[in-house]
Structure formats: structure tokens, C-alpha cells
Design a protein that fits this description.
Largest sheet: none
Oligomer: single chain
Helix content: over 70%
Number of strands: 0
Structural class: mainly alpha
Number of domains: 1
Keywords: Membrane, Transmembrane, Transmembrane helix
CATH architecture: Orthogonal Bundle
Protein name: Purine-cytosine permease
InterPro entries: CodB (IPR030191)
Strand content: under 5%
Shape: globular
Order of helices and strands: HHHHHHHHHHHHHHHHHHHHH
Number of helices: 21
CATH topology: Hydantoin permease
Amino acid sequence: MALNHHEEEIVEEISGGEFERTPVPKSKLKSWKSFLGMYAGEHAAGTEFIIGPLFLTAGVSAFDLIVGLLLGNLLAVLSWRFLTAEIAVKNRLTLYYQLEKICGKNLVTFYNLANGILFCFLAGAMITVSATAVGIPFDMPMPKLTDTMPNGVTWVIIVLVIGAIISIIAARGYDTVSRAANWMSPVIVIAFVACGIVALKQLGVSSFSQFWDIWGTGSDPFPGQIKYTFWHVVIWSWFANAAMHIGMSDLSVFRYAKKASSGWTTAAGMYVGHYMAWIAAALLYAVYLKSPEAQAFLSQGEAPPVAPGPLANNAIGIFGIITVVLAGWTTANPTIYRAGLAFQAIMPKTSTFWVTIIAGTVATVAGIFPAFAMQLLGFVALYGFILAPFGAVIVFEHFFYKKAGIIKNYAEEAKIKFNKAVMISWAISFGLFYFISIHFHVFLSFVTLPAWLLCGVLFLILSKVYQRKFK
């Protein structure tokens, strides 16, 4: 679920950074083949090594995991196809320019700040992933599932070194990063397949029924985790990339598509990465849970560590260690670069190099604290919950502005820098449903769609009110 790496790849490699404030011309449009490999590679990344095992810590059953992921990923593909791609080929604008037209420049600055910080935290989780592999030769104690603080000096040093290297590479330019990632993506996909096959052999699986029995009817969640049911898996996997599809971030990708049907290519990412890779990573953890070390943790009432490096090393040896390092690297690098661009929009006079270094520093500090990686399911849910409602503003305006009788691209037409209708709509929807989630202990992903819908409806109503003055 490499958030927004593919966005920058399209923008930087295909267009060379052009058309940031103009619609993409017909001469630059790309066929569906340009998106297929991109999505397949970008969603089999460092995050997958963490997400798969975390499903097991939530006590999922075989049906919940296998069928739930099948349905949830389908809903994600449908969101990309009928919302993101549909709007992208109509307007052919980046998310940021589209938001600026509706919200105003000052409000987009707020969005960029939130986006940049959240990207830094995600990159920090990927630095954590790579550190679990680099630490193996040093016999480094791996972070536990419930750890929030670093567990030793060795961990801190390794994270700082990895973070520094990643930040410097990202700051020196995106072309090298994206090309390297393209070459590494097939290797990472092959490694996931190999890990899955080896793990099945280690588990003694020779039939589908034995494969199904690995998770059986589920179990109690590990200490510190919540129980995931079928609907937890469905809704979480649907909104794992909420910021990209219903949040409209991938407008910047699909504005290059000849047809909206190119949105179907996201299925390659969902079913190679978010299905095959998650299940393969879960199998690695299933093998580990049978080990004496894991059983010792469980017997003491503790959750066994979810450390991608040792899990992959146990399955495919040195190739697994290298793959985990590469997977974390290829996700963290573009994510830091992307965060740097968001910060540069706030500090336009600061060079790309230095804003990327700032983003990398924030990400590295975040990587020192294992909580961002160990609680990745919760973090990803929060990420989508915060940013997705901004996409609702674009969707509801696009499909309903005529029926609602409001002016399209109001901030641009009225020459305002801050559209109060957008901010109030987001604040109410976010505040209300976040309160419901916290106060009534409702799974955050369950309220992402209601928050998104409420934000869109409120935007139409409030726009009608505020735009009377302009008319």
C-alpha cells in the first residue's frame, strides 16, 4: 500500500513535472498498460510485511481473512474506477490544483501540512521495517508488538543510519529513486510469492483445506490488540488507501489516462499486494507463532514480535533480509520525497533538497519509535479518516453541483483564499465521528464512510448558504 509513490512516478517520469496547473493535453495521455505494472508493483511494498502479520494478531478467522480481503479490495477497486478515475479524466487536474480551485490556497496549505506530517509517520514505519532486517547480523532485540519506545542503543543507531541514507537519496532527486523502485518491485513481488510457498511447506500444507485450517475459526486477539471480524477486514482493506481513492489523491495519476476504464488496473495492486502479499506475510507469521520463542511469549501473556526481517529470513534466508530492506527503502524514499513536496508548498522559498531533508528527519525520528509500525493498522485507518473527507468535497461538487445550485470551483470564481464551507464541513464530520469512535469504542474505519458522506452533504448545504453573497 505504498501511498502516493505511484502519483509522483506518473507526474515526474511521464510528464516531467508539467501540467501542474493546467489540464493534461491529449498528446500526453497514456493507455491502461501504463498503470497496470505501476499499481501491481507499488502495492507490494514494505507495509505489506507488517500488515499481513497484524491481521493474525487481531485473531482473524480463515473466512474473515480470505473472503474479507477479497471483498474489501474489490470495493477499493470500484472506488478508484467509478470515483477517482471518472473525475480525473473529466477534469485532468492534480488533486492539489483541484482543491485549490474549490477550497482556496490557504486551506490547501492546511491540507498539505496534514498530508506531509502523515507521510512522514508512514515513512518512519518503513524505516522501522528495514531496521528489523539490518539488525539481524547485530543480534539486535526486535521491537515487540506493544512497544512504543526504542528498546536499545543499537536500534536507535540503525534507524538513524537508515533514515539518514534514505533522506539524502530522496533529497537528491526523485528520478533515481523511482527508477530504482521500478526495478526492485518485481523482485519484491517474487520474494512475497517465495515466502508464501516456503511458509506453506513449513506449515505442512498440501491441500486447500489444510491452508484454510491455518486460521480456522479465528482466535482471541493478542494482548493490546482488538478482535477483527469479517467486517473489520472488509472495511479496513477497503479504506487502507482511502486517501488515494475516495480521498481523490490519485486524481494526479489518472488525469493521464485515456479512459476512466484505466481505473480497473488498480486491481493489480489490490490482488497482488493487498491480497497475495498480505496473506503471504501472514503465513510467515503463522510459521513463527509455532516456534518455541513465540510460544514462550504467549505463555507469559505477551504478544510475539512482528518483525519483518526475522520472518523473511526464516523463510528465504539472506534473500528475505535483502527484500525487507529494499521493500522498506522503496516505500520510505518516495514517501519522504512526497512529504517534502507537501512541505514545500507551505514554504515555497525553501529548496526541494532542504524540505526533503526536513521530512526525512521527521520520518527518521518517527522510525525510532516502533509504535508507528507495530500499530500500522490503526495508523492507516486514522490517515484515511483524516484526509478522505477532502475528497468528498471534490466528488460531491463534481456530481451534484448543478442539482444543488452551487458554483463550481467557487474559490477560483470568487477569488477567495479560504472557503469556509469546506473547512466547517470537514471539521464537523471529523469531530463528530472521531468522538463517536473514541467515546463509544467504534472501529475507526467503520466511521470513515459516514464521515466522508456527511462532509460531502454539509459542503453542498453550506456552499449554498455562503455563495448567496457572491451571487
